[in-house]
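Session log. Operator J.P. requested a structure for one protein chain; no other inputs attached. Running the standard single-chain path with C-alpha cell output.
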Amino acid sequence: MTKEECDENTSGGQAPSPPSIKSLNPTSILLLEDSPLDAELIARTLRNGGVECRLTRVDTEEEFRSCLKEFGAFDIVLSDFRIPGFDGLEALSIAKELQPDVPFVFVSGVMGEDVAVDALKQGATDYVLKNRLDRLAIALTRALEESRLRKERADAQHALRETEANFRALADNMDQLAWMSAPNGEVVWFNQRWYNYTGSSPSELANDGYKSFHDPEMLPIAGERWAHSLATGEPFDMEFPLRGADGTYRPFLTRVRPIRNAEGRITRWFGTLTDVGDLRAAQRELSASEELYRATADIIPQILSVHNPDGSLAWTSPGWKKYFGAEHESADKRPQLIHPEDRQATIDKWRECVEKSVSCEVQYRLRRHDGEYRWHNADVRPIFDDAGKIDRWVGSYTDIHDHIALRDALRQSESQYRQIAESLPQIIWTTRPDGYHDFFSSRWYEYTGMPRDGERGWEWSDYLHHDDLERTSAIWQRSLTTGEDYTVEYRFRRHDGEYRWFLGLAKPIRDDAGSIVRWFGSLTDIQEQKEMETELGRRVQERTAELEAANQEMEGFTYSIAHDLRAPLRAIVSTSGILLESLAESLSPQDVNLLGRQVFNATKLAGQIDDLLRYARLGRQSLEPRRIDLTARVLALASDARFQYADRDLVFEVQPGMEVEGDPTTVEMLIENLIDNAAKYSPHGGHVEIGCDDGVYFVRDEGIGIEAQYAERIFRPFERLHRDDEFPGTGVGLANVKRIVERHGGRVWAESDGLGKGTTIRFTLGR
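Structure written below.
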C-alpha cells in the first residue's frame, strides 16, 4: 500500500482547470490501481486540476477491503477496471457493501461503453478513461458534490422523520396526557398516555366522547371556561378530576395554549393534563426529606458534617461514628483525631477560612478507630442566608489514602523508568502528544553537551544537521498527524562538533480510548554501519567499473572474432561462386551440389554470426524510452512481411490505437522478429493477428504450433524445433525477442494448444 500527496498546483502558466477542492482537510482518495506509473499520473492530473487530496493506492482485494473497513477514512474511491486477480465490478460490489455512501469512479484504459453503462447501473458514480484524464478532476469534483447533496437530502429527510418521531415519542411518553384540537375546539388528536390512562380507543373518543371521562359535576364549569378561551383566544387553565381505566377519579391540572401562525391566527390548540395527585403526594413526601437526607448520608462513603457559623461542629453523619468510634463523637475531641504532624496547619487553615468566610479544602491524616492514620480530603463550604451571612458550614471528608498510595507508586514507577532509561546504551526520549520533548536520558546531554536545565521542547533540532532538518520535520509531523510509528535516519552534532548518524525510532503510547498520551523514542548510533555502507558502495562501484571494462574488452574481442571469421567466409562464398560459374560445364552434378551446399552453409554461418553479434549487442545497448505509435510500426512491418512471403497470401490483422513506452530501435526489432516468425510458420492464406489485451501484447498465427514442453526452449539461443529444409532460420530471433523484452522490464511467453493449432507469443513491456 502506498500513499501520495496531490496538493493543489499553484505554478503559473497552466491551462484553466476546474474549481479546486479546498478544505481544512484534503480530500482522502482510495485508489485501486496496480500500476504505480498510472497512480502517479492520476495524482499529477488531480494536482494540476487544483485538487488538494491525500491518495492511498492499493492493488489487492485484501488491502482494498481493509481500507474500506475504516469508516470515514476516505471521501471517494477511484478504481482501475482490471486488476490482476481482481476486477473493477468486484471492487464496486465490495465498496457498496462496506461504504455505500462513498462515491466510486472508474479510471480505466480498457472500459467499453457497454461495460461502463453496466457499471453505472450497478452503482458506480462515473467513469473516466485513462486517455481522457483531463476529465478526472471535474468528474471527481462532481462526484463529491453529488455525494454531498445526497447526504444533505438524506440528512434533511432523516431530520424531518426524526422530528416527527421525536414529537410522537415525546408526546406518547411524556408524563402528561396531551391532546390537540382544531381552532373551533374540535379535538383531533390524543397522545398514547391519554389512551393508556382512560383505557379508551380512538372510536370511543370521537364526537366529544372524551367528555364521558370527566367528572359530571365539573364538566359544565370546564365547558364554560373552554368556550370562553375559544372565543377570546386566551389560555385555559383548570384543575378537575378525570376518570381512569380502573374507574377511579384522579385530579388533573389542564393547561391549554393556542398555537398561532405567522399572521397571529390560531391554527390549533394544544393541551396537557398533569396528574396533580402525584404532585400532592410529592408534597407530602417533602416533609420526610430530612429523614431521607439522613439516610443518604448514612450510606455514602464520605463523612458529612454541618458546622455552626463560627465553625464549631453541629452535626455529623453516621459515617463519623463508624470511622472514629463512639468514644470520639464529641466535638471537643476532634483535633485529637488529626495526625500530630498535620494538626496545627489544619487548625490554622480552618480558622483562616472561617474568618474570611471562604471555602476550605485541605488534605490531612485522620486516625481511624483501629489506630491507623489515613489521608482524607476535607472540603467545607459556607451556606449563606438571604442577607449574605453564613447560615452554616457543610463539609465532606473523602478517604483518599488509596489514591495517595497509587500516586506514590506511580512516582516510584517513573523513577524506575528513568533508571532503566539511563542504563540503556541508546539515547531515550519522550514527548507530549503534540511532539514537545519533555524528557531526554543523560546520554543525550553527554553526547550533545546541551545544558540539563535548558528548554528541552524544541531545542533538540538545534543539534540536527541542517541537511536533514526539512526531511526529518516532515516525517515527524506525519507521524504526529497519523499516529504512525516514527522511523528516520539523521545526523546529530556531538559536543566536539562532529556529526554522527543515528537511527531514530518512536512509538505512540495510547490510553484505553485509543488516544495518544505520549511518544516514546530512542536514538541509536549507526555511524559505523553508515561507514560500512559507504565502503560497500565504493567496492560495488569499483567492481562495476571492472565489469564494464571486461565487457568492453569482450565486445572488442567479439568484433575481432567476427571480423576474422567473416573474411574467410566471404572467400569461401566468392571462390565457390567463381568455380560454379567458370567450371559449371566440366563439373559433375555431385560437385555442383557440394559447391552449392558450401555456399549455402557459409552464408548461413555468416548470418548466424550477425545474429549472435546482435544478441550480444542487445545486452549492452543503451535504451532511450519514448512513446511509440505501435500500431503504425506494426502495419509497416506487416507490409514488409506480406511482400517477403507473397507466395503464402497471408492476412494480417492489426489492432488500432496501440501505443507503448519503449526504445524505438529495439522495439521495432522485437516486432520484426515476431512477425517474421509468425509469417514463416503460417500456412498458405493464414491469418496473423497482432494486438493488445489489458496491457499484454500478442502475435497470434495459425501455423504449426508447439508442444507445451518446448514453450520455454524456443526463447533460448540456437534452439530450433525444425530442420532448415523445413523452416530456415538461425535460432537466435526469439532469443533476441526475450532479451529485448527483459531489457524493458517485461516478460515473454508462448501459448499453443498443440501441434497444428497455431502459436500465440505474448509479451509485456514495463513492470
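Operator note: The chain has 21 helices and 30 strands.
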